[in-house]
Amino acid sequence: MSGRVALIGDAAITVLAERGMRGLTHRAVDEIAGVPPGSTSYYARTRAALLELALTRLTALDEADLAVTPQLRAVEDTAALAEVVALLLTSLLDAGRVRTLARYELALEATRRPGLRERYDSAGGVIRRHAADLLAAAGSTDPQRHARLLTAWCDGVLFDSIAGAGQTCTPTSGELHLGASELLRGMIDFQ
Asked: Quick one: which of 13, 39, 42, 113 could link to 35 by a disulfide (CB 3.0–4.6 Å)?
């Protein structure tokens, strides 16, 4: 992704998080990106193309984060994995909050746009495969099933903390670690 396209993708993510799906316009993205009017339209002619560009950028950022997180390569048991899960959730609730909000906007829109749904599910599959690999390294005998449970729990925690009823009491890193530990012990240690 070129520098200009990445800039526009980042701006689209910000617009989605700040203004929601209705606020996502080519003009709004141009404004947030600080590029001349019409720049976004040049790279993403239609609304569908703009949504795909935002999702592509979001996926690239997520994959880059996973690639540079050293703790993800040092998982050997449920205790280490719980630490990594808590670290990732804390990051998504704090510095990654804008991306998480944009992801929810895209998830809802994907329920109405089959092309976007396909791309969204593909991006989610990357995360689930990574989770399955981590769970296998931690001792899971059914890493695919456990990955689905772990990602569903993480999604629930994120949604509750950012958009749900729990947004006024975001869990601490310690609470996230305890919750992840309990979940992982239940899945892996008692197989």
From this structure: 39
